[in-house]
Amino acid sequence: MHAARHALVLTPGHAPRVVEVPAERPQLDLVEGARQLRGALVTAVTRRAHRYEALSADLSGGVDSSLVTCLAAAARGLSALTYTDAVMAQDDDVRYARRVAAEVGGITHRVLDGKEPSVWRSRMWVRTRSRGHGVGS
Protein backbone atom coordinates (compact mmCIF):
# COMPACT_ATOMS: atom_id res chain seq x y z
CA MET A 1 0.00 0.00 0.00
CA HIS A 2 1.25 3.46 -0.93
CA ALA A 3 1.21 6.43 1.40
CA ALA A 4 -1.38 9.08 0.58
CA ARG A 5 -0.18 11.81 -1.76
CA HIS A 6 -1.30 15.41 -1.72
CA ALA A 7 -1.08 18.42 -4.00
CA LEU A 8 -1.38 22.15 -3.41
CA VAL A 9 -3.99 23.71 -5.71
CA LEU A 10 -3.70 27.43 -6.44
CA THR A 11 -6.70 29.00 -8.18
CA PRO A 12 -6.92 32.75 -8.82
CA GLY A 13 -9.50 34.35 -6.54
CA HIS A 14 -9.67 31.34 -4.19
CA ALA A 15 -7.79 30.31 -1.09
CA PRO A 16 -5.04 27.73 -1.59
CA ARG A 17 -6.19 24.20 -0.84
CA VAL A 18 -4.63 20.79 -0.44
CA VAL A 19 -6.21 17.83 -2.24
CA GLU A 20 -5.47 14.14 -2.12
CA VAL A 21 -3.94 12.76 -5.30
CA PRO A 22 -5.53 9.53 -6.51
CA ALA A 23 -3.55 6.36 -6.01
CA GLU A 24 -1.23 5.26 -8.77
CA ARG A 25 -2.68 3.06 -11.45
CA PRO A 26 -1.50 -0.50 -11.47
CA GLN A 27 1.52 -1.06 -13.66
CA LEU A 28 0.85 -2.18 -17.21
CA ASP A 29 2.85 -4.69 -19.14
CA LEU A 30 4.98 -3.29 -21.94
CA VAL A 31 2.59 -4.22 -24.75
CA GLU A 32 -0.47 -2.68 -23.09
CA GLY A 33 1.45 0.42 -22.01
CA ALA A 34 2.74 0.91 -25.56
CA ARG A 35 -0.78 0.45 -26.97
CA GLN A 36 -2.24 3.05 -24.61
CA LEU A 37 0.61 5.52 -25.21
CA ARG A 38 0.25 5.15 -28.98
CA GLY A 39 -3.50 5.75 -28.77
CA ALA A 40 -3.09 8.83 -26.59
CA LEU A 41 -0.42 10.34 -28.85
CA VAL A 42 -2.34 9.69 -32.08
CA THR A 43 -5.51 11.17 -30.58
CA ALA A 44 -3.78 14.27 -29.18
CA VAL A 45 -1.83 15.12 -32.35
CA THR A 46 -4.69 14.32 -34.74
CA ARG A 47 -7.18 16.48 -32.83
CA ARG A 48 -4.80 19.42 -32.88
CA ALA A 49 -3.87 18.90 -36.54
CA HIS A 50 -7.49 19.11 -37.63
CA ARG A 51 -8.02 22.43 -35.82
CA TYR A 52 -5.83 24.39 -38.23
CA GLU A 53 -5.82 25.09 -41.94
CA ALA A 54 -2.03 24.86 -42.24
CA LEU A 55 0.52 23.07 -40.07
CA SER A 56 4.23 23.42 -39.53
CA ALA A 57 6.72 21.51 -37.43
CA ASP A 58 10.25 21.93 -36.14
CA LEU A 59 11.76 18.62 -37.28
CA SER A 60 15.08 18.22 -35.49
CA GLY A 61 15.52 14.59 -36.50
CA GLY A 62 15.23 13.39 -32.91
CA VAL A 63 12.67 10.86 -31.74
CA ASP A 64 10.19 13.34 -30.22
CA SER A 65 9.96 15.79 -33.11
CA SER A 66 9.98 12.97 -35.67
CA LEU A 67 7.10 11.21 -33.93
CA VAL A 68 4.92 14.31 -33.67
CA THR A 69 5.75 15.38 -37.24
CA CYS A 70 4.85 11.95 -38.64
CA LEU A 71 1.55 11.82 -36.75
CA ALA A 72 0.60 15.34 -37.83
CA ALA A 73 1.56 14.61 -41.45
CA ALA A 74 -0.68 11.53 -41.38
CA ALA A 75 -3.59 13.75 -40.32
CA ARG A 76 -2.88 16.45 -42.93
CA GLY A 77 0.15 17.67 -44.87
CA LEU A 78 2.58 20.02 -43.21
CA SER A 79 5.73 22.08 -43.70
CA ALA A 80 8.69 20.98 -41.61
CA LEU A 81 11.79 23.00 -40.84
CA THR A 82 15.16 21.71 -39.68
CA TYR A 83 17.81 24.16 -38.49
CA THR A 84 21.51 23.38 -38.63
CA ASP A 85 24.74 25.30 -38.23
CA ALA A 86 28.48 24.64 -38.03
CA VAL A 87 28.22 23.18 -34.53
CA MET A 88 25.37 20.79 -35.42
CA ALA A 89 26.86 19.80 -38.79
CA GLN A 90 28.60 16.83 -37.17
CA ASP A 91 25.37 15.47 -35.64
CA ASP A 92 23.17 12.84 -37.28
CA ASP A 93 20.01 14.84 -36.62
CA VAL A 94 19.82 16.57 -40.01
CA ARG A 95 20.34 13.25 -41.80
CA TYR A 96 17.53 11.68 -39.78
CA ALA A 97 15.24 14.67 -40.36
CA ARG A 98 15.81 14.40 -44.12
CA ARG A 99 15.12 10.68 -44.00
CA VAL A 100 11.87 11.12 -42.07
CA ALA A 101 10.69 13.80 -44.49
CA ALA A 102 11.59 11.66 -47.52
CA GLU A 103 10.00 8.46 -46.28
CA VAL A 104 6.81 9.84 -44.76
CA GLY A 105 4.21 11.30 -47.08
CA GLY A 106 2.73 14.73 -46.60
CA ILE A 107 5.86 16.53 -45.38
CA THR A 108 7.31 19.50 -47.26
CA HIS A 109 10.77 19.81 -45.71
CA ARG A 110 13.34 22.59 -45.65
CA VAL A 111 16.73 22.62 -43.96
CA LEU A 112 17.92 26.05 -42.84
CA ASP A 113 21.66 26.39 -42.49
CA GLY A 114 22.79 29.08 -40.06
CA LYS A 115 25.48 30.09 -42.56
CA GLU A 116 22.85 31.35 -45.03
CA PRO A 117 22.59 35.16 -44.92
CA SER A 118 18.78 34.96 -45.12
CA VAL A 119 18.72 33.04 -41.82
CA TRP A 120 20.49 35.90 -40.06
CA ARG A 121 18.11 38.45 -41.59
CA SER A 122 15.18 36.34 -40.44
CA ARG A 123 16.53 36.30 -36.90
CA MET A 124 16.96 40.07 -36.95
CA TRP A 125 13.41 40.49 -38.27
CA VAL A 126 12.04 38.32 -35.48
CA ARG A 127 14.01 40.25 -32.86
CA THR A 128 12.85 43.58 -34.29
CA ARG A 129 9.29 42.37 -34.62
CA SER A 130 9.23 41.16 -31.01
CA ARG A 131 10.09 44.70 -29.95
CA GLY A 132 7.08 46.01 -31.84
CA HIS A 133 8.93 47.36 -34.89
CA GLY A 134 8.27 44.70 -37.53
CA VAL A 135 5.61 43.95 -40.09
CA GLY A 136 2.41 42.86 -38.45
CA SER A 137 3.31 44.08 -34.98
UniProtKB/TrEMBL annotation:
Domain Asparagine synthetase: 37-111
Record-linked Pfam families: Asn_synthase
SUPFAM superfamilies tied to this protein: Adenine nucleotide alpha hydrolases-like
The protein's name in its UniProt record: Asparagine synthase-related protein
Natural source organism: Streptomyces albipurpureus
